[in-house]
């Protein structure tokens, strides 16, 4: 619902800010947008005098003005500074922003300790949280901080593990923020924080990494790795082994690379089904080979079963490929649920998901169908940084122009450029990769359009 602003649009405040619309309000105050993109606080004289008399602000912190026969006080800020009710403020996205708020919290508490701040107004330019003296129930300071850090979750700032999960901060960051805000941490809190930090670092070390493909990496960690690493927790909620997955996208987009990285991470035996491994001119022979590979995967479970170029033998049965093809698809339909139930992770790949038989694509067989496209500039940059991290190199290397050139190309081109750059470095008798080497490697490897399409 729109707020009925006290001041008309275009009204000029004492500091020159031009009023626009009201965005927040209370009994004796409003926060408005100003033309410059910032905000301004407008407060009635009665409320302002309470702040002044309590020592929260000086007499000249706000500027008095008259509108009609009423006396108001105002203060403006730029778009980069916070001026907002504590209950509406966005959670901090950096530690520095959090520490600035924490300093204001502590400075306010050093002046007034009895008033609740859950309905306070955060004025960053004043380094204060100004109470609005609401009559509602008081909220403890640790819950106010927790609510703010998480963006609206009613949680105590001392619930450290949950805060590490819900906020953008590590346990060490939270310790600094809480102490800066003036809240006391006892020895038990400090011991707990150290344990949480060690635990979180261990969990991070266990995460699967796929340089240059953050979305696919996130999916694999969420839907495969976390389930495997927490089997009992998921089992109690009726979730079994990770479901089968299809990765589809153009040739060279990184599907095979992703699967190879996953297999290497898990360390499980892997088995492969592709056209060359199961194709046979004899009727029933292909189905027999499929069954044998599934049996081997089951025998050595937990294992990974990779189905490559699946459109070659799992295409739509309605296209009339013959009775033997119907039999082959039926064998897959029968074995996929059995395999996933018995700890076989199935990952299929295809360039033509539109050709796959609809029965194969139904949930219960392949629950997830993930599109993998060519890497964009940001993803290529991440992969370049990962590949170059262990190599000796000059400090002035600029990867941005290289990542722009390699965007929307096969990831194998990215790997080639780094390898070729390293070769050119060694060939020239140097011991550190340079920008010149990488650019030379890039120019010697133009996109092979015919391979991409």
TrEMBL record:
Top-level taxonomic group: Bacteria
GO molecular function, one term: ATP binding
Family statement: Belongs to the AAA ATPase family.
Pfam family, one: AAA
PANTHER family: AAA-FAMILY ATPASE (PTHR23077), ATP-DEPENDENT ZINC METALLOPROTEASE FTSH (PTHR23077:SF198)
Organism of provenance: Legionella qingyii
Coiled coil spans: none
Ranges where the AAA+ ATPase domain occurs: 241-376
Keywords recorded for this protein, A-Z: ATP-binding, Nucleotide-binding
Residues of the signal peptide: none
Name of the molecule in the record: ATP-binding protein
